[in-house]
Design a protein that fits this description.
Radius of gyration: 39 Å
Number of helices: 22
Strand content: 5-15%
Number of strands: 14
Largest sheet: 10 strands, mixed
Shape: elongated
Length: 668
């Protein structure tokens, strides 16, 4: 190329700098008035080859004048319900309640399960159950209410009966079928979900202004029912389903706006109807963000030189992968053969086209990059660091907004795979995107929970605020209707045992049915030992033979030779304290240790193992002597306080009957 052509190129994208003069802006406006957008792309312009060894400076970015952030009063950073209700607000819930009740009344009723109008509180709980089902996955929806021990999840039956849940899900509706008119409806193919889609899509773009870097890509919602606009995308996880075009913030994956593809009737701005379909998608999604200095990343389905030129006129940068057979792509880019690692690049105004050979040819377009390369942390097979064009590195960093969204929506999907009604699947997918957007806003304002913890806390809040303790079950009501632990603080209460449970081995009267248990099968060696022990106790008159119908099997319990059970009896609290000290003193003098596992008091002390942790540490084999440090002393004082108070240590009342349980020792 001649020097004059390169100078013209410098002037062309030099006029688009951030500090451009007013004269250049006026000339741009005049050119817009004189010729149409379509005529502009057919103006004669020349591609200039770039020296890839010493590339010229990259075209400057447009000045970003957007104000990213939330457009609503920021609630408490930990109030997950407030962020959820930014999207699923009272208007949307009332719409669901109204249309569901209307649709149910229009259907022929059933005598077995008559329809009871759904309430606002029930709709909140219904959505909470659907969110919870995305976390707790089961192959069949009916299994959430199963009473089988291996499948039982009690929370579902406490919130709703399966019949009520199934009723609400069956009649769930979002638009009035009676007033629908295909001639006047803005989007006839989406009429059954249109009020919800329009409402949520508007909230996505109005509640939050994204940061400078955004990306556009398609997302596939799996659906295999009968629908004329189902798409097949073999590279997507679902492969078959309903396609959505999404504009997301590159860093967080926040969904700013979306377009549901419905074939020929896809709703796209009429201002761009003469453009190719892929360009119409980009311009329709980016329309609210034009002239603000945004930078959009696209893949090869959307990227083209014409689109990049038009976006540059609207002070919007762009870059992404591009198909080499696009119109106005230099012939040399398509035909030149490259070896691995080689680059060829051309510049036209602010637009740079680059081809780089990796394992295969990669073609890129950018309005903010040159052909410069950067060293990455990856190494080739020879151990050397790999160099890549900077445009490819930036593309990998900013193109993942939609992919990040798809990844997180797949973790806890609300919509089940086998849904038959397409509009219900779209609704639950939109609810999933609303939850993700609420989670992103929650994190941007100081929230500390991850996606799973956010959903769990939201479910608990919905149950706490909207679940009623009144039971909807038929038949005899329970003593305590409703799951109180979900709506009130729960305190354990001691229930005294009945006389029979307290002493099951004692007969109340002669009419009690005797308890007879068959003897256990035992090894021969144990039989001999048991016979010797029984004969010994018979001779010592500890036991005697009996012909009573009451019978329990005899068991042989092995016991260590150096183990013994000690009973300390006292007539007063002070005497008991003194005798315990004397016992401990003799145990220490003789080097005897106490088995903490056999401590009778541990069952009455809450968190006994944690309280006595210093004792366990110092009494272990690693410590030959007990070191009386502050930790040990404080633990001792804590145990003394717990053991010397009711109900651990209490002097018996001899004026009342009580039972003393002993073993078969002579002393006992």
């Amino acid at each position: 190329m001649s020097d004059s052509s390169s100078n013209d190129t410098d002037v062309e994208y030099g006029n688009l700098e951030e500090s451009g003069s007013d004269e250049s802006e006026e000339s741009d406006l005049e050119s817009d008035e004189i010729c149409s957008d379509e005529d502009h792309f057919h103006l004669s312009r020349t591609w200039c080859a770039i020296d890839t060894d010493q590339p010229p400076p990259a075209p400057p970015r447009f000045s970003f004048v957007g104000t990213p952030g939330c457009t609503f009063p920021i609630p408490d950073g930990q109030d997950v319900l407030a962020y959820y209700q930014l999207f699923v607000d009272d208007y949307l819930i009332n719409l669901l309640v109204t249309e569901t009740n209307r649709f149910a009344q229009q259907q022929p009723g059933s005598s077995a399960t008559p329809w009871a109008p759904v309430t606002v509180a029930e709709m909140h709980i219904f959505l909470a159950i659907k969110i919870l089902q995305g976390i707790v996955k089961k192959p069949q929806e009916r299994m959430y209410w199963s009473t089988a021990e291996v499948f039982q999840t009690p929370i579902f039956s406490k919130l709703f009966t399966y019949q009520r849940f199934y009723q609400i899900q069956r009649y769930l509706h979002f638009a009035d079928n009676v007033t629908y008119n295909s001639a006047t409806h803005p989007h006839p193919k989406l009429n059954k979900i249109w009020p919800v889609y329009e409402n949520l899509n508007g909230k996505f773009s109005s509640l939050y202004i994204p940061e400078r870097d955004v990306s556009i890509d398609e997302s596939l919602m799996m659906y295999k029912g009968r629908l004329s606009w189902i798409q097949y995308l073999p590279l997507k996880r679902a492969r078959f389903g309903i396609k959505l075009y999404l504009l997301c913030e590159s860093k967080s994956g926040y969904v700013h706006s979306s377009i549901i593809y419905t074939g020929k009737g896809t709703l796209i701005s009429n201002k761009y109807k003469n453009w190719p379909m892929s360009s119409q998608i980009v311009l329709s999604l980016m329309e609210p963000l034009l002239n603000l200095g945004y930078c959009v990343t696209t893949d090869n389905f959307y990227t083209s030189p014409q689109l990049a030129d038009f976006l540059a006129q609207r002070k919007t940068d762009s870059y992404g992968t591009m198909r080499m057979n696009r119109q106005e792509v230099p012939k040399e880019i398509r035909e030149k053969k490259l070896k691995k690692g080689e680059i060829t690049a051309f510049q036209r105004g602010k637009v740079m086209v680059l081809k780089w050979r990796d394992k295969k040819d990669v073609c890129m377009l950018s309005t903010v990059h040159n052909s410069a390369r950067e060293t990455t942390k990856k190494r080739d097979k020879d151990g050397g660091l790999i160099k890549k064009p900077k445009v490819i590195i930036d593309y990998n960093n900013t193109m993942g907004g939609v992919d990040r969204l798809d990844q997180h929506l797949h973790d806890y999907p609300i919509a089940r795979k086998r849904g038959k009604k397409y509009y219900k699947k779209i609704f639950f997918h939109l609810l999933d995107m609303s939850l993700w957007n609420a989670f992103v806003l929650y994190n941007k304002n100081g929230g500390q929970k991850n996606n799973l913890q956010f959903r769990q806390a939201l479910i608990e809040k919905l149950i706490e605020n909207f679940h009623s303790t009144s039971s909807t079950r038929k038949g005899r009501p329970s003593y305590q209707p409703g799951p109180l632990r979900l709506t009130e603080r729960h305190f354990p209460e001691y229930v005294p045992p009945t006389k029979k449970k307290a002493a099951p081995y004692l007969a109340d009267d002669e009419n009690d049915i005797p308890i007879y248990q068959k003897p256990y099968r035992k090894p021969y060696t144990q039989k001999l030992e048991m016979k010797q022990q029984i004969d010994k106790m018979l001779k010592q008159r500890i036991i005697r033979e009996s012909s009573s119908p009451w019978s329990s099997p005899v068991s042989l319990v092995p016991k260590k030779l150096d183990a013994s059970d000690d009973i300390i009896f006292s007539t007063s609290l002070q005497e008991h304290k003194d005798r315990i000290e004397e016992v401990f003193k003799r145990l220490i003098e003789n080097g005897v240790k106490i088995s903490l596992d056999k401590c009778y008091y541990r069952k009455f002390i809450r968190d006994f193992a944690k309280v006595t942790e210093p004792f366990t540490k110092f009494l272990s084999k690693e410590h030959s002597t007990v070191v009386m440090d502050e930790t040990y002393k404080s633990c001792f004082e804590k145990c003394k306080e717990l053991l010397c108070n009711d109900p651990i240590l209490i002097y018996p009342d001899f004026t009342k009957p009580f039972i003393i349980t002993t073993d078969a020792s002579n002393v006992g």
